[in-house]
């Protein structure tokens, strides 16, 4: 990859891990936190779309579907961070998607993946086992594993949906991003408006974290898209998973989560597995 592409991928990795750290710091935020993030993101992105594109009714289904899947993703992730450690939930959420892709290719499409892909899948499973063993109470560890893996399944879903929307429906990524955030905000609006006082209190208490997530979440996405215009997807995809390692280190240094060596080792194994799957 070119130096610029490398810098973009690294920036995306730190941005992604950074907004997840901010989300973890608001364990009691729940759906209100997700609504505030989505609403602020929409307010930042929608004006750009209105200036650069002409809205079309053909966008409704692709954008609505993307919004539903991303909403499920954010709600599950937030619930995972409320019940489990970031150093457990984050690597599992990011690593499950590529593993699930290999499984679907074998079971549903009867493909025969390259041996490197199979080794990568095995490495992801091993990394998950390393991360999930030891440290924390049994209940919190189990919850972190369940929510991490479930979130990873949803990531697979929105990745496939968004890829279809961008390629088959020819929708610009920034339009998809705007539509997704608007959908999330609209769907959660009745819930948030019925809890105005709680929403205002949450905004006052955690406005920094809300701003971080609202800005860095779409920024990480856009940075990766730019990197993919400068380097092959087969190189960018595994490189972006460096965020798993960054997130694990931040969970240890900033949040003081236990068993850093075990969990960082597991995260590195997951990254290696994801890289092998992407390069297979």
From TrEMBL:
One of its GO terms (molecular function) is transmembrane transporter activity. It holds the Pfam family EamA. Keywords: Cell inner membrane, Cell membrane, Lipid A biosynthesis, Lipid biosynthesis, Lipid metabolism, Lipopolysaccharide biosynthesis, Membrane, Signal, Transmembrane, Transmembrane helix, Transport. GO terms for biological process: lipopolysaccharide biosynthetic process. Residues 1-17 form the signal peptide. Residues 5-131, 143-277 form the EamA domain. It comes from the Bacteria. The keyword Oxidoreductase does not apply. SUPFAM superfamilies: Multidrug resistance efflux transporter EmrE. Its main location: membrane. The chain crosses the membrane at residues 57-76, 88-109, 115-132, 144-161, 167-189, 210-231, 261-279. GO terms for cellular component: plasma membrane. It is a multi-pass membrane protein. It is found in: Cell membrane. InterPro entries: EamA_dom, EmrE-like, Small_drug/metabolite_transptr. Gene3D superfamilies: 1.10.3730.20. Belongs to the EamA transporter family. This is EamA domain-containing protein. It comes from Saccharothrix espanaensis (strain ATCC 51144 / DSM 44229 / JCM 9112 / NBRC 15066 / NRRL 15764).
């Amino acid at each position: 990859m070119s130096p610029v592409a490398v810098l973009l991928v690294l920036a995306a990795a730190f941005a992604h891990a950074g907004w997840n750290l901010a989300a973890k710091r608001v364990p009691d935020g729940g759906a209100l936190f997700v609504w505030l993030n989505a609403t602020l993101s929409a307010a930042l992105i929608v004006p750009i779309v209105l200036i650069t594109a002409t809205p079309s009714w053909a966008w409704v289904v692709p954008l609505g579907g993307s919004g539903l899947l991303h909403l499920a993703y954010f709600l599950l992730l937030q619930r995972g961070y409320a019940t489990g450690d970031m150093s457990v939930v984050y690597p599992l959420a990011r690593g499950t998607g590529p593993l699930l892709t290999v499984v679907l290719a074998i079971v549903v499409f009867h493909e025969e993946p390259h041996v490197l892909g199979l080794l990568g899948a095995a490495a992801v499973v091993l990394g998950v086992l390393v991360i999930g063993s030891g440290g924390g109470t049994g209940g919190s560890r189990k919850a972190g594993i369940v929510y991490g893996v479930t979130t990873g399944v949803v990531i697979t879903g929105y990745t496939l949906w968004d890829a279809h929307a961008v390629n088959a429906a020819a929708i610009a990524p920034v339009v998809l991003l705007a539509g997704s955030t608007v959908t999330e905000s609209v769907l959660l609006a009745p819930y948030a408006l019925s809890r105005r006082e709680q929403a205002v209190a949450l905004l006052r208490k955690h406005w920094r974290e809300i701003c971080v997530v609202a800005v860095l979440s779409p920024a990480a996405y856009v940075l990766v898209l730019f990197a993919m215009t400068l380097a092959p997807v087969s190189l960018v995809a595994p490189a972006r998973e460096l965020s798993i390692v960054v997130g694990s280190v931040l969970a240890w240094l900033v949040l003081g989560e236990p068993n850093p060596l075990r969990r960082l080792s597991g995260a590195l194994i997951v990254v290696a597995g994801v890289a092998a799957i992407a390069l297979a």
